Amino acid sequence: MSKKTRKKSPKAAPQKAASGKAARAQSAKSAKTQRTKSRQVKASESTKKAIKKTGDATRTASQKAPLKALKSAGSKPPAPKISAANTPAPKTAPAPRALAAAKAAPIKAKAASPAASKPPAQAIATPAAGKSGLVEGAKAPAFHLPRDGGGTVSLSDYAGKKLVLFFYPRADTPGCTKEAIDFTRLSAAFAEAETALLGVSADPPKAQEAFRDKHELATPLASDEQHQMLEAYGVWGEKSMYGRTFLGILRTTVLVGRDGRILKVWRNVRVDGHADEVLAAARGS
């Protein structure tokens, strides 16, 4: 080793030692600073946890306090208040009598209607005032009327014979057609019983002729357009059908004896089987 080298070596050693000491001091200081910061962070976290725990405990205690007080008092929490303005009015059930009256009203209204209470065939019929006194044993009112085919017909034409007068409301209507056909069917039997037949309505002679020709009727048909004979026999009166009131012929049959007196009167006639019933009465008189 040279002298120059030997001279420098002792001086460099103290410098390295000083540098290492400073580094160790600096490192220790940094470690101390780091430990301080760590302790501060831990302390801050502990403080936050303590604050949070204290707050939770406070809130829990504040929530439990009212329930605990109510429980100790033995009562339930008050029900929420409902405003009267927002509360719907309660529905009141109808009284039993009112409900029964409401149910009975349609039935009473139906019963009050003539059309609803009775079928058309049973419509209410009332003879004209003062003309309903035709009874068995009374003298048959005289008449003189035009008939189908021209000419006239009167009560005197049948003197000494029995006569069936069947009054029908209108020519060529269903009930009247069936009735006229039934009397035509039995015309020979009536002739054997010495009983004549005469149909009467308020239709004009031309309508009677068309009615006769259409259905090949064998019985003469008289026309009383002025209603004089119809009123005299009490078969022109007030009728009610479908709620409408009007005047018309009330379907009626009269059996006149050989002496010109009334033997039998059938009022509000039902067509089915009627001609046979009249024939039986004519044979027995």
From TrEMBL:
<keyword id="KW-0575">Peroxidase</keyword>
<keyword id="KW-1015">Disulfide bond</keyword>
<keyword id="KW-0049">Antioxidant</keyword>
<feature type="compositionally biased region" description="Low complexity">
    <location>
        <begin position="11"/>
        <end position="31"/>
    </location>
</feature>
<comment type="function">
    <text>Thiol-specific peroxidase that catalyzes the reduction of hydrogen peroxide and organic hydroperoxides to water and alcohols, respectively. Plays a role in cell protection against oxidative stress by detoxifying peroxides and as sensor of hydrogen peroxide-mediated signaling events.</text>
</comment>
<feature type="domain" description="Thioredoxin">
    <location>
        <begin position="134"/>
        <end position="285"/>
    </location>
</feature>
<feature type="compositionally biased region" description="Basic and acidic residues">
    <location>
        <begin position="45"/>
        <end position="56"/>
    </location>
</feature>
<dbReference type="InterPro" id="IPR050924">
    <property type="entry name" value="Peroxiredoxin_BCP/PrxQ"/>
</dbReference>
<dbReference type="Pfam" id="PF00578">
    <property type="entry name" value="AhpC-TSA"/>
</dbReference>
<dbReference type="InterPro" id="IPR013766">
    <property type="entry name" value="Thioredoxin_domain"/>
</dbReference>
<dbReference type="GO" id="GO:0008379">
    <property type="term" value="F:thioredoxin peroxidase activity"/>
</dbReference>
<feature type="compositionally biased region" description="Basic residues">
    <location>
        <begin position="1"/>
        <end position="10"/>
    </location>
</feature>
<keyword id="KW-0676">Redox-active center</keyword>
<keyword id="KW-0560">Oxidoreductase</keyword>
<feature type="compositionally biased region" description="Low complexity">
    <location>
        <begin position="84"/>
        <end position="101"/>
    </location>
</feature>
<comment type="subunit">
    <text>Monomer.</text>
</comment>
<protein>
    <recommendedName>
        <fullName>thioredoxin-dependent peroxiredoxin</fullName>
        <ecNumber>1.11.1.24</ecNumber>
    </recommendedName>
</protein>
<dbReference type="InterPro" id="IPR000866">
    <property type="entry name" value="AhpC/TSA"/>
</dbReference>
<dbReference type="GO" id="GO:0034599">
    <property type="term" value="P:cellular response to oxidative stress"/>
</dbReference>
<dbReference type="InterPro" id="IPR036249">
    <property type="entry name" value="Thioredoxin-like_sf"/>
</dbReference>
<feature type="region of interest" description="Disordered">
    <location>
        <begin position="1"/>
        <end position="101"/>
    </location>
</feature>
<dbReference type="GO" id="GO:0005737">
    <property type="term" value="C:cytoplasm"/>
</dbReference>
<dbReference type="GO" id="GO:0045454">
    <property type="term" value="P:cell redox homeostasis"/>
</dbReference>
<comment type="similarity">
    <text>Belongs to the peroxiredoxin family. BCP/PrxQ subfamily.</text>
</comment>
